[in-house]
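Quick start: what a row looks like.
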Amino acid sequence: MAIYIKALLLIALLFLAITFGTQNSESVTLRYYFGLAATPVPLYLVIYIAIILGMIAGMAIDIYSRVTLKRKVKKLEKANASLRDELDKIKGETGEGVKEKLEISPAEPGVVQTQPLPSSSSARPGNEKNG
């Protein structure tokens, strides 16, 4: 069922592109800097090329960000494995004394311990109260 919907949407998009091209077939001359001019081309061609170049630029940016994120994930996985190995070594050396070795204070199960943040009002200059 989904393949039929995709096919219908593709057919509709192609129909709109073709009718757009026939409605905007008048020629335009593109002017460049320094007095350079191109030969006349149909308006729809200029628009289609601009759309395609925009899609290519968007895909290039997406591919770059994906590659960067994959590198970061690999680096973090490597660091994670290293930390796990170090934790296993500590567990092997101390057995049950891991909490003392890692300086972890006991807490109730399911309770996250946090440290209070420094007061931001006293840290900023000019926030003294005149009294």
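That is the whole record. Residues 44-95 form one domain. The two ends are 74 Å apart (CA to CA).
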